[in-house]
Write a structure and sequence with these properties.
The chain is mainly alpha-helical. About 50% of the residues lie in helices and about 5% in strands. The radius of gyration is 24 Å and the shape is globular. The relative contact order is 0.13.
Length: about 475
């Protein structure tokens, strides 16, 4: 537990004969001496959504690596330089120290707390299972970034040299953990209440979140282990996934610091002009005459013009990030119904047995994406020859629409490209061909010195600690 103490060394002579007075004086009357598990849970949720939303070049480069955005003056990170700013270590540290550590402490404190005012044991159990779901969400992201990470040994203060677990082992255990948590949640009982910044403590929503997370885990495994992928997806569908956009896991940012969206901090409050839309996404959407363009980009001299990805590009000569996205209270997006529909479209296209057709899921995913961005014209868009569902071209069509719908969520868009090899990305200035585009972050540099034996084992486990080493699920 976290405790706050007041130093009274100088006053000890005055109180040496009065222990009770000393202890009473040492108590901070204005601040709690212990942090509640619920408040740590809120902190961890906020840290998670901040990281997902961020475009901080010191730790989250995925809006660029997905080629949704590009740099203007200093395109190092768009050229896959993660060493100058120690990006991998910063990313790794943030996940473990700022997010997972708070979830672990929340779990520890909640487990130890006697909730005398609420004797229903299901309330405590619900809280612990919701934490389990969010930890699974986070560990999937970590595996998708690095390929192997500390998992079994993670966050153990008695083990400062944790071993790395293989990505496929972690995925399989996450599926078990999500299944256990989703099956154990009791929708008839309370949970975190207002301390839950995503769903306000609504346990029925967390059940849908858990079942939807099975879809996300399963579809990522589709090339690696089709049988496990299908059974995991079917389990999620049968349990009840997101049924509409009302189920989206979102965060309501405010207009004042420190609770504004990190995009605002990166694009506006910084006073810098570092980011513009990349020509990769702008050109594709121009070719499709995609009606979502005004929600994604501003006009430049009457057209949408992206900066050449990975090259210097004058800020004043290109389209920009629109005011709605760079506003301080732009909604933080964690997990959506549209995302699940497009994953299910992919699953059905692969031949997995599901209640609806690939085309039905595909169309619904696109329509809901349009609705989210407040854009009309989805039906006309779906009627376009180059957009409408085509089973013979399912991989290209579904991958493109996933990638487009993940705008502002760079890691999910980057993962789509790695899994499905669409759309084709541009070649940045400092590389020569598509095969040189990274498929992961390398392990943190300090792990090579501080945790060398386990670093060496992890490097061998994944086939070499290279930017171009593929994550285990990236088969083709």
């Amino acid at each position: 537990m976290k405790k706050i103490y007041i130093s009274l060394v100088a006053l000890l002579p005055l109180f040496s004969a009065c222990t009770d007075q000393f202890e009473d004086f040492n108590e901070d009357k204005k601040n709690p001496s212990e942090v509640s598990g619920e408040s740590l849970f809120s902190n961890a949720q906020k840290a998670l959504i901040d990281h997902v939303s961020s475009t901080n070049v010191n730790q989250n480069l995925f809006k660029m690596w997905a080629q949704h955005w590009s740099h203007t003056s200093y395109p190092d990170e768009a050229n896959y330089d993660i060493t100058t700013r120690n990006v991998a270590a910063n990313n790794f540290r943030y996940y473990y120290r700022e997010i997972l550590k708070d979830f672990l402490e929340a779990e520890t404190i909640i487990t130890a707390t006697d909730y005398t005012n609420d004797p229903n044991p299901k309330v405590k159990e619900n809280k612990l299972l919701i934490i389990q779901l969010l930890r699974a969400y986070i560990f999937q992201q970590l595996v998708d970034i690095f390929g192997a990470v500390p998992y079994t040994d993670a966050l153990n203060p008695d083990n400062v040299y944790p071993a790395y677990d293989a990505g496929d082992f972690i995925y399989k255990d996450l599926i078990k953990k999500v299944d256990e948590a989703t099956g154990g949640l009791d929708a008839g009982s309370e949970s975190f209440g207002s301390a839950d910044l995503f769903y306000g403590g609504d346990v029925s929503q967390w059940i849908k979140f858990g079942n939807s997370l099975k879809i996300k885990l399963g579809i990522t495994l589709a090339d690696y282990d089709p049988a496990l992928a299908e059974s995991t997806i079917r389990s999620g569908v049968n349990g009840g996934v997101f049924a509409s956009a009302a189920d989206d896991a979102l965060f309501g940012y405010l207009t004042a610091s420190p609770n504004f969206n990190p995009i605002y901090a990166d694009v506006i409050a910084s006073g810098r002009h570092d980011f513009i839309p990349a020509n990769t996404i702008v050109d594709i959407m121009n070719d499709l005459e995609d009606p979502r363009r005004p929600a994604y980009f501003t006009l430049y001299e009457g057209e949408y013009k992206g900066g050449a990805y990975g090259y210097t590009a004058p800020y004043g000569s290109h389209s920009h990030i629109p005011d709605a996205i760079s506003a301080p209270d732009f909604t933080g997006i964690l997990f959506t119904y549209s995302e699940i529909q497009l994953y299910l479209a992919e699953a059905a296209a692969r031949g997995f047995s599901l209640p609806s057709s690939a085309e039905t899921y595909y169309n619904e995913g696109i329509r809901t994406s349009f609705d989210f961005w407040g854009i009309a014209g989805a039906d006309d868009y779906l009627a376009k020859e180059e957009v409408k569902y085509d089973q013979a071209k399912w991989k290209e069509r579904v991958a493109l629409q996933q990638w487009l719908s993940f705008y502002t969520r760079g890691l999910e868009a980057y993962t789509t490209w790695r899994r499905l090899d669409y759309p084709r990305l541009n070649i940045a200035e400092r590389i020569h061909e598509e095969s040189e585009i990274p498929t992961r972050f390398t392990f943190p540099v300090n792990e090579q010195t501080l945790n060398k034996a386990n670093y060496d084992a992890a490097s061998q486990l994944i086939g070499g600690d290279l930017l171009t080493t593929k994550i285990f699920w990236d088969i083709y």
